[in-house]
Amino acid sequence: MILTLIFTVILLYYLQHAFFYAKNAYRQYTYLRNFPGPPAKFPTGNVLDFGTNSFESTTVLLRWADEARAQGHNIMRVWIGLRPVVLPLNGEALKPILDSATELTKGEDYNFFISWLGLGLLLSTNEKWKSRRRMLTPTFHFAMLDGYVEKMDRHTQILLDILDGKVGKELDIYPFVKRCALDIICDTAMGTELDSQHDPDNPYVFAVGDFNELARDYMLTWYYWLAPVWFFTQRTRKMRLLDTLTTFTKKVIADRIEQHRTGELKFDDTNGKRKAFLDMLIEMKEANALTDEDIREEVDTFMFEGHDTTSSGIGWTLWCLATNPAAQEKACDEVHAVFGDSDRSIAVEDLKGMPYLEKVIKETLRIFPAVPQIQRKVQNDFKIGECTVPGGTDLMLAPYLVHRNEQVYPDRWSFDPERFNADLASTRHAYDYVPFSAGPRNCIGQRFAMYEEKLVVAWILRRFSLHTDRPMLSNMGGAETVLRPSLGVPVTLRRRQ
């Protein structure tokens, strides 16, 4: 009798959920069936058209976007199984969602990261997100970045010393840049020396890389979306990686809190030890009622967002310079005009200069945006121009599609930093270029990222010239957590005289 009752309750529960799912799915279909986009097949939608990897799917999505734009549309939809995804295709279509102060919820694909990052600034929404954003914004003020730049410079000089032993032969520079970025973010976020550049076998280094790879596999492998398959094949691996990642952070936080409590850590804004992001969070702990877990969420979020994206941006910039020698020499001349033959450290004031190098980085982020796509799930019916996107639908905001709009960027595949001259940039819609997103939920660390990318690239140009015989577009970008280069970044370094 009891078993029958339990079975009946479970059955009714799932029947109720199935009813509401079917009702919402039919409503979405009714609204979206006339949206431009590729024809879909029941029940797989367009999944089988995406190809077998992220490089193929990126190419397919761009072809569909070009077809929709050629027909005069600035929005399209695709079906991931029975789940619709709507993609704005230019700045005008992006503006309503990026400017919205209410539709701030991230898409379902981000749920994979909750077990690591919790509901920190990246994944939280509504009032929690707004309060965290208000709390954290002052930590990215210009004055706070000064101390970060000193740390960036020190770790970059370690990178240069390592690369000195690699001159004259082709190497994939991407892993070296990535370890440098990881050391920078560990130092600036937690005030801790990871030293992954000298210790690439560090368990934390492996865990960061493996977790991102696991996330990529999950997002691109449809049968992993079936809970039993995931549970019996990958759950143990994920839990092991999470244990390594969170144990490391928790230990650093506990030690740091104890150092603050005993007065062991003393900061001096002129010549003494600089505050790390973690130190500022500890100082905010009482006033903002933060728990140790709240602090861990924000530190891990900063760690995650602050090294993968910047290393992608730096790697692609070095690739674009190697494959465009004229742009490289012009950037090098500008860097030499600032530093001459000196080997002095790079300071904040230096980073505020070098306008051509900044345009090089911007043009790189146009063709190869480090964050190729972000997702929002609209909670209510949402208007984009004349189109209504029904509540519960995922929006994919894809800079790698928007930035490659031939109608906005003629000869879109050519590398031309002059596109970012002020007179040309002012003729475009402000949201036709959104490498760091835009609006209320833009990237809080974009100034940090630009400083780091500019500093690392400037240092490399001071010491080396970059060479390759491969054409720029032979290196395809795969839209994953970041835009992954299919070849890595294979270049040959030569010392500059």
Question: Can you describe this structure in just a few lines?
Answer:
With 497 residues, the chain is α+β, with helices and mostly antiparallel strands.
Compile the SSE list and pairings.
Blueprint: H1 2-32, H2 54-70, E1 75-80, E2 83-88, H3 91-99, H4 114-117, H5 126-136, H6 142-163, E3 170-172, H7 174-190, H8 203-220, H9 227-233, H10 235-262, H11 277-284, H12 292-323, H13 325-339, H14 348-351, H15 355-367, E4 374-377, E5 382-384, E6 387-389, E7 394-397, H16 399-402, H17 422-425, H18 446-463, E8 464-467, E9 477-479, E10 483-485, E11 490-495
Parallel strand pairs: 2-7
Antiparallel strand pairs: 1-2, 3-11, 4-7, 5-6, 8-11, 9-10
Description:
It comes from Pristionchus fissidentatus. This protein is α+β, with helices and mostly antiparallel strands. The chain has one domain: Cytochrome p450, CATH 1.10.630.10. The protein is 53% helix and 9% strand. It contains 18 helices and 11 strands. The strands form 4 sheets. Strands 1-2-7-4 form a 4-stranded mixed sheet. Strands 3-11-8 form a 3-stranded antiparallel sheet. A two-stranded antiparallel sheet has the order 5-6. Strand 5 and strand 6 form a beta hairpin. 39% of the residues are buried. The mean pLDDT is 90.
**How many structural domains?**
1
Broad CATH class: Mainly Alpha
The total count of helices amounts to 18
CATH architecture field: Orthogonal Bundle
Query: Beta-strand percentage?
Result: 5-15%
- In this structure, how is the largest beta sheet organized? 4 strands, mixed
Strand arrangement, major sheet:
1-2-7-4
Beta-strand segment tally: 11
Q: Overall 3D geometry?
A: globular
- Average per-residue pLDDT, rounded, comes to 90
Based on CA atoms alone, the radius of gyration comes out at 24 Å
Question: Considering the protein shown, what is the CATH homologous superfamily?
Answer: Cytochrome P450
| Structural class by sheet pairing and helices | alpha+beta
**CATH fold assignment:** Cytochrome p450
